[in-house]
Design goal:
Elements: E1 6-9, E2 14-17, E3 25-28, H1 31-51
Antiparallel strand pairs: 1-2, 2-3
Domain HicB-like antitoxin of toxin-antitoxin system: 3-67
Pfam families: HicB_lk_antitox
Protein name: HicB-like antitoxin of toxin-antitoxin system domain-containing protein
Length: 70
């Protein structure tokens, strides 16, 4: 499955979350690190849901960019 992630820059690190998987988050020092950690977190999260007998949520979020000219 392919899930959208949101990466946000903080003061000293980057944080990421998955809109379709509440509670699935990661923090890293670089965008590349947080992307890798997020991939691992998603797998871990999905495995936990399966082990607990929960349904795996379908990816529903769509990421888009819009241009806003002033």
């Amino acid at each position: 499955m392919r899930y959208a992630i949101v990466i946000e820059k903080g003061e000293n690190s980057y944080g990421a979350y998955v809109p379709d998987l509440p509670g699935c988050v990661a923090v890293g020092e670089t965008v590349e690190e947080v992307r890798t950690l997020m991939q691992e977190a998603i797998i871990f999260h999905l495995e936990g849901l399966q082990e607990e007998g929960f349904k795996i949520p379908e990816p529903l979020s769509i990421c888009e960019y819009v241009e806003a000219k002033l």
